Amino acid sequence: MIARSLTDSQGKSVIKIPKKFLQSDAGDGTRASQQYLHGYQLVLTLASLVTTLFILALDQTIVLTLLTDVSSDFGSFTKVGWLTSGFMLPMACLAPSYGKVSIAFGRKNTLAAAIIIFEIGSLIAALAQNMDMLIGGRVIQGIGGGAIQAMVIVIISESVPIHKRPLAMALIGITFSVASVCGPFIGGAFTTHVTWRWCFYINLPIGALALIMLLIALHPPPPEGSVREKLAKIDFLGTFLITAGLVLVLLALTFGGNEYAWNSAAVIVLFVLGGVVLVLFMGWNFMLSKNPLIDGRVVAVPQIMAACLSACFSFMFFMGLMNYLAIYFQVIHRASAWQSGVDLLPFVITVSLTATFNGIFMRFTRFIKLTMMTSAILGPVGVGLLLLLGRHTSTSTKIGVLIPAGVSVGFQFQSTLLAAQVKAPGHIEGSMIMVTVFLNFCKSLGGVVGVVACQVLLLARGQIYIDEALRSSGNQQSFSSLTKKALLQAPQAIWNLPEDARNATLDAYMKALRDVFYLNLAFAVVALVFALFTTNEKIPKKSQLQHSDDKPEEKEGPDLNSLTSDV
Q1: pLDDT-based confidence at residue 529 (cuts at 50, 70, 90)
Q2: Which residue from 35, 40, 77, 536 lies 20 to 30 Å from 309 (Cα-Cα)?
Q3: How far apart are CA 282 and CA 273, in angstroms?
Q4: Among candidates 374, 368, 455, which has minimal Cα distance to 408?
Q5: Same domain, 259 and 227
Q6: 314 and 199 inside one domain
Q7: How many domains does the chain fold into?
Q8: Alpha-carbon gap, residue 316 to 309, rounded angstroms
Q9: What's the angle, vertex CA 304, arms to CA 421 and CA 555, rounded to 5?
Q10: Are the C-beta atoms of 316 and 523 separated by less than 8 Å?
Q11: What is the pLDDT, as a whole number, of residue 345?
Q12: For the segment 378-396, what is each residue's pLDDT rounded down to a tens digit?
């Protein structure tokens, strides 16, 4: 924080007054200081939050190992992509609404309801009798998952003051990265030795344990107001508009080049309608709504927008790497789901160690911009090094090229969040919650768009490269029963081709994967550009914190807002 001076009539500095960091209240009638946790309550609450986040992150990658078995059981490979899309779409589309819901009804109640919804979706998916029922279960999981992801971060942020937050936030990065790689391990084990249904059954006992710990440990003051007053805080029209608009646009991205051609009427109509609805949402939210989902006073702060957009593009390449590095190992090197998890360990271990170090470093030095820029610079470097991967890459190279990208991701988790939170306007109630939820929305949207964009590029470029491989191999007859798109969607079939055709097709697939890495390199560069415009401020010291319920004698210096203009 910057210290400001008072001057005498001759302009000489006579006393320095430290600028206070005003921690915003929740906007529900409670005070920020009332939300802080200590002792066993803090430990048990963090354990509950980490456990909840673990099963959520696990579900984003565990399905990658069961696609073939599920499509075989239900005889519907054309719908198998919706097991991923059906989960991620509601997570992103509903994310903006959770901030207002949690302010109205409380963060604990919102998270508890989200866990229950997620568990219901898991049970439906586990008991599914056909592909449509399974996809429906995944959609319900995504609805609960979006609230879980937002509320875990908000509750951690509320439970400890900002100067202690870096260490707590390190848990998020570690949990997410470890769970993302455990997904293929656990999914592969269940699919191979038991049944793919256990990939969803496993959520039930773990989620129940997390919910019990949450109910025992967390007892925040209840939000004030009647049910009618609480409902009035929620912008239902805004929620409908942004959800409908995002669903239409993301469906267009999902269908385009996959189920329909990009110039088809279905895709064009989805893009146009989605764009119109999103424009209507922006007009309503920023000009007409009395309780906007996205507070214009918050997103108007340039440093907050820079941090959120940097996080968005960083998460684009993170999700792209997690998905397509696994595909690289499984397709190009014919690794099992279990082995691909082992191959990704250098990346995950690096992320975990870096996130831990960053939490300690930021806790004691209070620097945000330093680790933010380190992450932003290493992003393009790390993704660029992945272009060295090929069909015959040595083990040492495969390990080495994963480390810089892992360092970038490890530094990014806390840095972008704290860079946004430290600029949350303290005089606006609920600003910390709104900033946190908005950043989480940007990351969720970035993750969906990143994965979809990578899939679209792989299909488009892969078909071109495989067509070239067909001509050069002279074995076009071997492909008579397989379309180029089918080879890309079910690449295990490549290994059933004759040797010459197989080698040519694997070369084509590797070229398409390299184009995917180039796309993620572009995402990383954009994240770097936005990181340049984030705040240069440090995390405030304990002595610089100020709360709305502080007594006058507890303050170390006068409130800058109370100084008259003639001082």
Answers
A1: very high
A2: 35
A3: 14
A4: 374
A5: no
A6: no
A7: 3
A8: 11
A9: 40
A10: yes
A11: 82
A12: 999 999 999 998 888 888 8
In sequence order, what are the beta bridge partners of 17?
Answer: 4
Is 153 in contact with 190 (CB distance < 8 Å)? no
Does 19 fall in a domain? no
Secondary-structure percent of the chain, ordered helix, strand, coil, rounded to 5: 75, 5, 20
Cβ atoms within 10 Å, residue 132: 13
224 and 258 inside one domain: no
Tokens of 560: 């800058």
- 7 CB contacts (<8 Å, ≥6 apart)? 13, 14
Question: What is the rounded CA–CA span in Å between residue 533 and residue 207?
Answer: 39
Pair 320, 250 in one domain? no
Using the structure block, give the residue that is written with the tokens 């075989």.
72
pLDDT, one tens digit per residue, over 106-161 is 889 999 999 999 999 999 999 988 888 998 999 999 999 989 988 998 898 888 88
Give the number of residues written for the chain.
Answer: 567
Residue 448 in tokens: 């969906």
Q: What is the DSSP secondary structure assignment for residue 256, as one 8-state letter? A: B
* Predicted confidence (pLDDT) per residue in 295-349, tens digit: 888 888 999 999 999 999 998 988 888 778 888 888 888 877 677 777 888 888 8
State whether 108 and 250 are in the same domain: no
